Amino acid sequence: MSWNLIESGPADADHSVLLLPGALCTAQFYRDLMAEPELADVRLIAATLPGHGGTPPPEDFSIENYARLAAELAAQFECDAVLGHSVGANVALEMVASGLFDGPVVLLSPSLSRRDESIVPRVLDRLGRVLGDLPFTAMLTVIGPAMKGSLPAESQEMLIAELRKNDPRVTRRHLRSYLQYLDQHGSVATRLCQAGRRAWVLYGEHDDVSITDQERSTLESCPRTTVITVPGSSHMIANMAPARVAEILIEALVPTC
């Protein structure tokens, strides 16, 4: 499987981090985070999930397969940590939950269950069962206006263009598999807790992905998991609050006894 990658930082850096974007997004969505001065000495590898942003899709769309592929990439670059956003966060969660990666993870707006997910993907999945690819084609047509205000003004047009590269047929298949993964576990909050890895779970103050009280309680009871609400941020935390994310990522890279 070939990956669409963007890299920054010195090749011989003391630390390397794999960055996994969310659904429909590409590695370009991490440009704001990669530009943070605090991360200048960290090797960052942003990797578009196969099938997203118009990239060639995998044969297997399961989150488990994405986790296997991402774990292989993390091993290739000798990554100390993994940071994922949205679906990319779910992939990172599965990497540690299945024992494929034993480092710390920073999870930006993961959906821990189907009901946590934004209403739009859930509705699209239901419509797709009846209307096929048509709802996904329509969604990609209107995604520009829908994203305004959720991305930095200076990079908004470029990032929206990245979203429009997606193939509706691939998006439909990915979404179905992703929601099936969440349904299979009911909630992956306990799964993350049982993994026993250091984890930071972030949600934007105005996030359209939610977390139930029970899930929050489960994560807050885990001695190695920290749940954080980022003030003023939407779902696109790495774009809207890159300095805060960089700060947490540096914290994740500090080894503990």
UniProtKB/TrEMBL annotation:
Residues forming the AB hydrolase-1 domain are 17-247
Q: Which UniProt keywords apply?
A: Hydrolase
Q: Which Pfam families match?
A: Abhydrolase_6
Query: Which molecular function term from Gene Ontology is one that the record holds?
Result: hydrolase activity
Q: Please name the Gene3D superfamilies in this protein's record.
A: alpha/beta hydrolase
Q: Name one GO cellular component term.
A: membrane
- Stated name of the protein: Alpha/beta hydrolase
